[in-house]
Write a structure and sequence with these properties.
Number of helices: 14
Radius of gyration: 32 Å
Number of strands: 5
Helix content: 55-70%
Largest sheet: 5 strands, mixed
Strand content: 5-15%
Oligomer: single chain
Strand order of the largest sheet: 1-2-3-5-4
Structural class: alpha+beta
Length: 439
């Protein structure tokens, strides 16, 4: 029996270690490696000890209460040591533990039915003893390399895996009643009836995986199409920015000559010609104006470019912003986010008749690690409730447009944020909340 309990202890230890490796591969650590090692060692020892004590005193090789307690302990330690949400990591640990149990039940069922077919001892792996000890030991040895490989894969695919957290939670909840049902293997009286339920379960599980795979493929195709549209938008915006830069660079390069010309005019007392010349230069400077709105070079470039387009359309612009110098968004995200939102505001404002004020209000605020962007403008007519929820494009060729807001929604979703829309009569306001800063 000592050998059996030792193998059981090793098996529980390896399972707990693998569960922690999965969490380590998905979430970022918030503690040092030394503290992580100590914390994991404590949890592994505690869970393995509870398993042995439960089996010795309760005479239960498997316990639902112990499984839930183990999931709760794993979750507490993971929340303390990793950058993760309690509910997400709870469902993840539940999925891992339920998966271990289902694999165990399936092997035990196959062994029982196979032994019954050949007329051997059917409960060879079900009752405590040397054979079950060897089974648990081999199971643990197989999990060791699997855990390392799986953790490495999760680390490489971390960003992609995090996108499907909700689906993982649903999967864990769906598998829980299946695990409770297949515990009948330990009753031994009804094992022969488990064959067909296992067939249906495996078939349903494979169907679920197939549906999930096609959903992932569909999302990737959609994302690639949106990215191609974004590249087209970025290229056009880049060309506009380069034109502004070129105009401003040429003007600054010639400023020395302009000043000399003005000086000569003043010496010759040609005041009217000098005044006309200065007005002309000021107008050229305003064309290439580069106001510092946010103290972030890329964001300021985008804002200046779009504000210039708004002024050409006779739209007044008001902008208030906090210091965004350490904004943690890529240039692509900044350009896609702000150009799409401002393009929509400019388009809506330009359609307003004379009696409605053409004005845009842009606000960028920082609250801790959150970026809050508010853009408001007046509309030609009031927006219906259904139209406000869908926020569809008003352009004629709808299939060729409407990618702007979808791109915005995708970026906000990836940054774990959300969007609010407010409509008061003919005033439209869109507010974005997203993770935009490291601290």
């Amino acid at each position: 029996m000592v050998f059996y309990y030792l193998c059981n202890y090793i098996n529980t230890t390896i399972k707990t270690w693998m569960a922690l490796q999965v969490v380590d591969g998905i979430f970022e650590a918030r503690r040092s490696k030394r503290n992580l090692f100590i914390g994991q060692s404590i949890v592994i020892t505690l869970v393995a000890t509870l398993q042995i004590v439960n089996e010795i005193y309760m005479n239960l090789p498997f316990s639902n209460n112990l499984l839930l307690l183990t999931v709760f302990i794993d979750t507490i330690i993971c929340v303390f040591f990793y950058e993760c949400n309690f509910y997400h990591v709870l469902c993840l640990n539940l999925l891992i533990r339920v998966s271990f149990a289902l694999i165990d039940f399936f092997v035990l069922t196959c062994t029982y039915l196979g032994a019954d077919w050949f007329g051997e001892r059917k409960d060879i792996f079900l009752s405590a003893g040397v054979w079950r000890g060897w089974y648990l030991f081999v199971y643990a040895i197989i999990l060791l390399p699997v855990g390392r490989i799986f953790r490495k894969w999760l680390t490489e695919k971390r960003q992609e895996v995090l996108k499907y957290q909700k689906k993982v939670m649903i999967l864990g909840i769906l598998l829980l009643p299946c695990m409770v049902y297949f515990q009948k293997i330990y009753l031994q009286k009804t094992v022969s009836r488990l064959f067909y339920p296992w067939c249906f379960f495996i078939l349903g599980f494979l169907l679920m995986i197939l549906m999930f795979y096609f959903n992932v493929v569909r999302q990737k195709v959609e994302e690639n199409r949106i990215q191609r549209m974004e590249i087209t938008i970025l290229e056009s915006n880049y060309q506009t920015l380069m034109e502004v830069y070129d105009e401003k660079s040429i003007l600054m390069h010639d400023m020395k000559n302009h000043l000399r010309t003005i000086l000569e005019m003043m010496k010759e007392v040609k005041l009217e010609e000098c005044e006309t010349y200065i007005i002309q230069i000021v107008g050229e400077i305003q064309k290439g104006e580069n106001v510092v709105w946010t103290n972030h070079k890329i964001l300021d470039l985008v804002l200046n470019m779009k504000f210039q387009e708004a002024r050409k359309a006779q739209i007044k612009v008001r902008c208030k912003s906090d210091d965004m110098s350490d904004l943690n968004l890529s240039a692509t995200e900044i350009c896609s986010l702000f150009t799409n939102l401002l393009d929509n505001a400019i388009e809506a404002s330009a359609k307003c008749p004379e009696e409605i004020e053409r004005r845009m209000n842009v606000i960028c605020r920082r609250y801790g690690g959150k970026l809050v962007v508010s853009i408001s403008n007046f509309m030609e007519k009031e927006m219906a409730g259904q139209a406000m929820q869908s926020l569809k494009t008003t352009k004629k060729e709808e299939k060729l447009h409407g990618f702007g807001l979808r791109s915005v929604k995708r970026i906000v979703q990836e940054r774990e944020g959300y969007i609010k829309v407010k409509v008061l009569e003919k005033k439209f306001q869109i507010i974005l909340y997203l993770n935009g800063f490291l601290n």
